[in-house]
Amino acid sequence: MDLRLFLRLHQDQRGVPQLSGHHRIPVAAGVIQHPLDDRIFIAKRLDGTPYEGYWEYPGGKIEPGETALQALRRELQEECGIEIQSARPLIRVSHDYPDRSVELNVFLVTDYSGVPHGREGQETAWMKRGELRDIHFLDGNRPITNAVLLDDRYAITNTRVYSHDTMLNRIAQTRGPRLIQVRDKHLTDAAYLDWARAVVAAAESSGKQVLINRGLENLSGWLQQTGAHGAHLDSAGLMAVHQRPVADDVWLSASCHNAQEILQAGNIGVDFAVVSPVQKTGTHPDAVPIGWEAFACLCDLASFPVFALGGLGEADRRQAWEHGGQGVAMISGAWRN
User: Fold this and answer.
1) Residue 70 scores a pLDDT above 60
2) Which is nearest to 218 in space by CA: 247, 250, 245?
3) Which fold has domain 19-149?
4) CATH superfamily of domain region 153-335
5) Residue 24 — φ and ψ, nearest 5°?
6) Whole-structure pTM value
7) Nearest 5°: phi and psi at 109?
8) Burial of 85 (0-12, 13-18, 19+ CB in 10 A)
9) Concatenated DSSP letters of 289-306
């Protein structure tokens, strides 16, 4: 990582107040996928334990000398009776409760032996992903739930380069990114409205979701007129607001390039963010890439899922995961063959 960028990054952090006097307890948690469908395994905290009655993604404290994955293997065997065969990083977030602070190291568990159950007598359930937002989770679990609900690919439209038909045909296919942003800021309001409506129609036919990127003015009106599932703020719009500009039941994402913007995104309650440019990109050739190490630093600051953007394709998802990201956002990479 460029040293000047590193110094700027940490200089931005100096203005961050200490949120808690508690030492952060390192915790490993697992999002366990059902082997046959999209359901997720959750567990209710036992009576007599802190925050009893709340639901959570199972896991527990990382003991000294353990890695997060080693701790998760132990905890899921003890609590749920399964042996992890395959898991990958999903998200790492910190949360401050009144009596404790935790650092949650969360993994997506995709393969395992055994049948998950409440081995310690705790109530458990398999929930459809769409039902997770209605569950009475511990507060610190909201970013995890968002990470579960989001795809690991975020496609951004570009009508300057790709035809409407090319993009609509790709969106209408069941494969490919399940999250689409309609950018195309050069379009007139009327042209943008028509285009966004077409994207939403194609996306809904294939079970995908669409966010609009049309600035702050009349944002609720744009959402209503297009039928989009959420809104994206550019960095200027992000820094201009003091609270979340849309309802909690629609997605809100934002573009971030530095620590100040990441912290602002957390302050207004975004559901996820896009950090760019990670690598050199043809759509913004003059932008200086920050690289994966700086991306990881910004992910560490975030209290929400973060996508990497800039010169990336689907093959870069593992790099993003290993550096704390949700996945990759793509402009050219989403539409070229």
Assistant:
1) yes
2) 245
3) Nucleoside Triphosphate Pyrophosphohydrolase (3.90.79)
4) Aldolase class I (3.20.20.70)
5) -75, 125
6) 0.92
7) -95, 110
8) exposed
9) P-HHHHHHHHHHH-SS-E
